[in-house]
Amino acid sequence: MPSYLANKIAVVTGGGRGIGRAIAVRLADEGATVVVNDSGANLDGSGTSRAPVDDVAKEIASRKGKAIADYTDASGYGASKRMIDGVVKRYGRIDILVNSFGNARPKLLVECGQEDLDLLIDVMLKGKLYCTQHAARHMVTQGSGRIINLASSMGLTPMTRRVAYAAAQIGIIGFSNVAAIELGPYGVNVNTICPGATASRLTEDAIRIARAHLNHPIISAGEIATAHHTPAPPDDIATFTAYLCTEAAKNNNGQVFHIAGSTIGLPDLMRRPHEIWQGKPWSVEQLIKDVPSTLMMGVTNVPTQNR
After folding, report:
1. Taking the model in full, what pTM does it have?
2. Which of 53, 186, 278, 289 has the highest CB neighbour count under 10 A?
């Protein structure tokens, strides 16, 4: 079989477990030299461990692939810069960056403390933005590169107890789309993958939390569905990530892909089911009269208790 990524240098952050692990192994199977990065932290951001990265590196080696273990906490600006710069210093280039790290502290909006909010935004949003920026600077210089940022379907469908998590996912999609516009002229493609329920620590934790709150008065349809999910293996996400890094996908840029099991789709993020327009400024009186019967006709709102 052909090695579609032979001689490519790839960095996979969050590559020690779950989806990131599957991606690291798949890229190596396709011939890339893979820097497997993971601090080995727990889901809540505490602790570190070298074991996850070491296990992946050993697996790749057992499959005759090339892997380099890296234990950097890639969520920090300076640390991620040193990691990316170190890869370029060692290999002379960076061809692929896949950002797959993340964490979770599921709480309702009114229960979240500042530390909870900061952790999710700092790690999942700012961390991936930092890594993207550092890699992009080298890729622009070399005139080529592929960046794939993993977000989540929770950024597409609201789910209770995930307010900071959802904010981070929407942010990942947003900055990736802007980066695609800015970097495309230099031969650098940036795409986002939003996995559905996929076997990983984050998904297992989400299912556990959802099942524990099935009788809670505050629960979304998304969380109810999550409670009954059977997670799919990450194989197809890993394979599609590898595809995005091939020459055949050179024109795929600025896209958001939703992958659930073997189903791959392009969600419509700019849905405009209804619009109203008039050639002069609106008045409150007009809006009170027209909005319910036109713009909001047939639209299902999030339930609320009016008092």
Report:
1. 0.88
2. 53
